[in-house]
């Protein structure tokens, strides 16, 4: 596996209804990047199904609070419905996708570090052997963001919900990926005047978070980009619509890029 030709793409749950538009480019992307890992969210779908079942979503600084009922819904939706639909979508387009989760091959081990978030894990270790084996055999791993609770003594707490942005960041960092791309439903990160910041340094990214300019769900995305810079060359936050994904690989300036 050549990290220079490896890209990690995180697909936001808010873009699920636009897969036909923003993922049809992956076949062409594979010709350029050679190896792709997909990490997906699905928070919007989790919330929709939670509402159907009478479980109202709660958020703390852009992160979902997860109790036992929410965790069961998250596992079912993320590793079941969303992951399966995404794998089917890619296979229909002649992309050899394999659906796995952070539980597969003991990939992601995490701990509860913020009790206000409930059964939400902070990643402590990443085992990339399964991912590397899939890449070496020319498969595209499609990963759902749940993991193993390192400190669990209760079977009901052995699985943790993990923010997909952090999963993508840790995997990209551990494999020294060339690119880490976050597909969202916004055009990038905006400054105080509402203008898209097309390029920023690591220092500028940290200042944006500390200044409070970045809020809500964009906080974990930008923090993930910052964290990934220990091993990743380029991180991007883009709008998943149109041809933005393939444009990134063709060197066009789309969305926000974070570099060292």
Summarize the entry for a quick read:
With 260 residues, the protein is of the alpha/beta class. Helix content is 36%, strand content 23%.
Please tell me about this protein's structure:
The protein is an alpha/beta fold and 260 residues long. It has a single domain (3-259), classed as Carbamate kinase. The chain contains 9 helices and 14 strands. It has helices spanning 19-22, 26-33, 43-52, 68-92, 129-136, 164-174, 202-211, 218-228, 244-249, and strands at 6-11, 35-40, 59-60, 63-64, 97-101, 108-111, 122-126, 140-144, 146-149, 159-161, 179-184, 199-201, 234-239, 256-259. Strands 5-8-2-1-11-13-14-12 form an 8-stranded mixed sheet, sandwiched between helices. Strand 3 (59-60) and strand 4 (63-64) form a beta hairpin. Helix 3 (43-52) packs across helix 4 (68-92) and helix 6 (164-174) packs parallel to helix 8 (218-228). The two termini are 23 Å apart. The relative contact order is 0.17. The model has no long low-confidence stretch (mean pLDDT 89).
Biggest β-sheet strands, sense, barrel: 8 strands, mixed
Strand order of the largest sheet: 5-8-2-1-11-13-14-12
Name the CATH superfamily assignment: Acetylglutamate kinase-like
Strand percentage: 15-25%
Label the CATH architecture. 3-Layer(aba) Sandwich
Number of strands: 14
CATH topology: Carbamate kinase
- CATH C-level class is Alpha Beta
**Number of domain modules:** 1
Helix content: 25-40%
The chain-level structural class is alpha/beta
Count up the helices: 9
What is the average of the pLDDT values?
Answer: 89
Low-confidence stretches: none
Please give the alpha-carbon distance between the first and last residues.
Answer: 23 Å
Q: What's the gyration radius in Å? A: 17 Å
